[in-house]
């Protein structure tokens, strides 16, 4: 038994197709199977790897992770990018040390399990280019207080109003390319640590007024969205540094209080229908 093996990296072994029997590698901390395109299944024995901290099955043909994966109490990073996985494991909420989940390009993935926010250590959830249709509303008792990054870029089936009260520690919310998304929940105003919001290439028409409560927001990206105007009272957002609104064909007016933003460094409104820049008091000139 290879009790001392810490890293097993079989990346790019394109002919590897047998179920991996892992009971011989009980000390593994990192298992990398990225690019094993013919691999369709993992052995239940993976649940025996009590020291495993990182599992990467990106770019494989694995459809389902074995339920025994929830026994990996030291797992911190799970990478399933561009695999055939259809859902995250049941009882994933019991994996207390899981910090990062990467699921970009999982075209079969449609549902985010509600118990994902039971993960007390979760920092990053990236499910870009998936078919996730909605983010479930979650009870306050399950608030994911530590999730820092929620990236749902190019989830073209996402159309529900996002209920964000479950993600109070978010610092970055990326919804770029969610073309069917038409509205953001007023609950976004509760995200007091949010530093970057990207709703570029969405069908959102209006940002909720509660956005002015985002006192930590530094970057707003609305490029090629349907947004018709910038929020009222935008001048209250003291940490605002960058506004990117390229290709927004609806806005015709820049709010005069935009120069009340003491930290504003970048204002990009190219290819818009802005007709004039308001005359501003000299005391407010940046």
TrEMBL record:
Pfam families in the record: LRR_14
Keywords: Repeat
Highest taxon of the lineage: Eukaryota
Gene3D superfamilies referenced in this protein's UniProt entry, alphabetically: Ribonuclease Inhibitor
Lineage: Eukaryota, Viridiplantae, Streptophyta, Embryophyta, Tracheophyta
Residue ranges of domain Disease resistance R13L4/SHOC-2-like LRR in the record: 5-132, 146-274
Record-linked SUPFAM superfamilies: L domain-like (SSF52058)
Protein name per Swiss-Prot or TrEMBL: Disease resistance R13L4/SHOC-2-like LRR domain-containing protein
